[in-house]
């Protein structure tokens, strides 16, 4: 569905541009914020928050009417998700965690990321086309293809990991883990610290880049398929079916790794 | 691919959604699941218990039935025996009664025979005396000839043994 008058490169780079707003020289400007940290990707935020609200609305509606008797169909779906996440947390942690935040956090991330990824299944041109007619120049509908979104979630998980590490093991216990592994000798402290520091920092980076990379690549392929004219229809369908798997799998992996990182934070070595 | 304030915005949004989920979604749903799980476990346990009780009751009923059957047989046996006894008793009683009646009749017969014979004898004696009186032409004192008359009566009796 490439619009006429655009080259393929222009089409793709146009679709990969976020709708950004920032204040430059005392004035709000749109889409002119390259390199400015104090800018907001409006499309990512709007879709992320909308989907978050959809999640919260749907789940709390069911939760409010939750019956201990025979559950309705919606409640069954919610219970399957909740039960699944709860089971994952139980299986990963050696002792059940004291903190009540871990399972709900995992579930929110799972469903939210799943919903955000699912936006990829809407044909790539529909929403940007509609937005274009409303005067919005750029629109990216999949929040998880925005590196800000995935990093924000990964960094939050990372900070929570450090919080639990210090809470469970104490500041000194956590530090010891960083400097006295893998070689428990005072001379090896700098080496250990470098090694452990890298592995510590690698966690949030790999967590966020994995999700971002998968979804970004998926979206890019949808765009390439969209350039193929009539042949895009079967290909689009085939890639969408395959992408369905990625959508669910990446949400699951993000959730599972979150649980694993948090369980590691709870474990003494 | 620029990092910008979206990072912070997304973090804040995530914290809010996770908090909401932790506060308002997770507990009721989890509670419902746990509660139902418990109810199902209780239900299964109750079912098992009911089944066990049913088996016990069935067993008990069978033994009671067997007892009853045995008792009924005993009662029937006893009744049979008793009825046999009663029939035997009644038979014995009846035959005794019959014998008694026959004996009484026989006694009465003997008595009345004796009475009749005595009367006959007296009559014969009186006839004899009357005959003798007519023959002799004078009054015979029955008392003075009592011995004679008795002998006569004895003689008569001997001559008519078939009446005895």
Notes on the protein architecture:
The complex is a heterodimer of chains A (269) and B (164). In chain A, 68% of the residues lie in helices and 4% in strands. Chain A contains 8 helices and 3 strands. Chain B is mainly alpha-helical. Chain B has one domain. Chain B is 88% helix and 0% strand. In chain B, α1 crosses α2. Chain B is rod-shaped, with a radius of gyration of 60 Å. At the A-B interface, β3, α2, α3, α4 and α6 of A face α1 of B.
Architecture blueprint of SSEs:
The complex is a heterodimer of chains A (269) and B (164).
Chain A: H1 8-15, E1 20-24, E2 27-30, E3 39-41, H2 42-64, H3 73-92, H4 102-118, H5 126-133, H6 147-179, H7 189-226, H8 232-266
Antiparallel strand pairs in A: 1-2, 1-3
Helix pairs in contact in A: 2-4, 3-4, 4-8, 6-7, 6-8, 7-8
Chain B: H1 6-136, H2 146-159
Helix pairs in contact in B: 1-2
Distance between the termini of chain A: 56 Å
Oligomeric status: heterodimer
Q: What overall form of chain B do the CA principal axes indicate?
A: rod-shaped
Alpha-carbon Rg of chain B, integer: 60 Å
Per DSSP E runs of 2 or more residues, the count of β-strands of chain A stands at 3
Low-pLDDT stretches of chain B: none
């Amino acid at each position: 569905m490439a619009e006429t008058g655009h080259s393929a490169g222009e089409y793709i780079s146009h679709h990969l541009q976020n709708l950004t707003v920032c204040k430059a020289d005392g004035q709000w400007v749109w889409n002119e914020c390259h390199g400015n940290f104090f800018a907001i990707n409006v499309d990512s935020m709007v879709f992320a928050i909308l989907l978050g609200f959809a999640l919260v609305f749907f789940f709390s509606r069911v939760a409010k009417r939750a019956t201990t008797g025979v559950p309705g169909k919606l409640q069954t779906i919610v219970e399957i998700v909740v039960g699944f996440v709860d089971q994952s947390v139980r299986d990963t942690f050696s002792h059940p965690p004291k903190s009540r935040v871990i399972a709900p956090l995992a579930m929110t991330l799972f469903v939210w990321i799943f919903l955000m990824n699912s936006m990829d299944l809407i044909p790539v041109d529909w929403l940007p086309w509609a937005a274009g007619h409303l005067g919005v120049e750029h629109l990216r509908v999949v929040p998880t293809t925005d590196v800000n979104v995935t990093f924000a979630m990964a960094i939050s998980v990372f900070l929570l990991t450090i919080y639990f590490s210090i809470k469970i093991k104490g500041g000194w216990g956590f530090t010891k883990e960083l400097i006295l592994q893998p070689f428990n000798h005072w001379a090896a402290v700098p080496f250990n610290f470098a090694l452990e520091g890298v592995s510590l920092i690698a966690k949030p980076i790999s967590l966020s880049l994995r999700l971002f990379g998968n979804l970004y690549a998926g979206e890019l392929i949808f765009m390439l398929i969209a350039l193929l004219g009539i042949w895009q229809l079967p290909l689009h369908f085939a890639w969408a079916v395959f992408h369905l798997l990625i959508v669910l799998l990446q949400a699951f992996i993000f959730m599972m790794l979150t649980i694993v990182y948090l369980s590691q934070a709870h474990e003494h070595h | 691919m620029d990092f910008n304030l979206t990072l912070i915005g997304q973090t804040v949004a995530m914290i809010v959604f996770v908090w909401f989920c932790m506060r308002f979604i997770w507990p009721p749903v989890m509670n419902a699941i746990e509660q139902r799980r418990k109810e199902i476990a209780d239900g299964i346990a109750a079912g098992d218990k009911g089944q066990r009780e049913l088996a016990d009751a069935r067993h008990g009923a069978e033994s009671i039935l067997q007892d009853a059957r045995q008792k009924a047989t005993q009662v029937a046996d006893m009744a049979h025996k008793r009825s046999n006894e009663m029939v035997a008793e009644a038979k014995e009683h009846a035959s005794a009664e019959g014998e008694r009646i026959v004996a009484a009749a026989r006694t009465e017969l003997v008595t009345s025979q004796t009475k009749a014979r005595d009367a006959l004898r007296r009559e014969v004696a009186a006839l004899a005396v009357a005959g003798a009186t007519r023959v002799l032409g004078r009054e015979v004192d029955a008392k003075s000839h009592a011995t004679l008359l008795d002998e006569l009566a004895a003689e008569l009796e001997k001559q008519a043994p078939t009446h005895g």
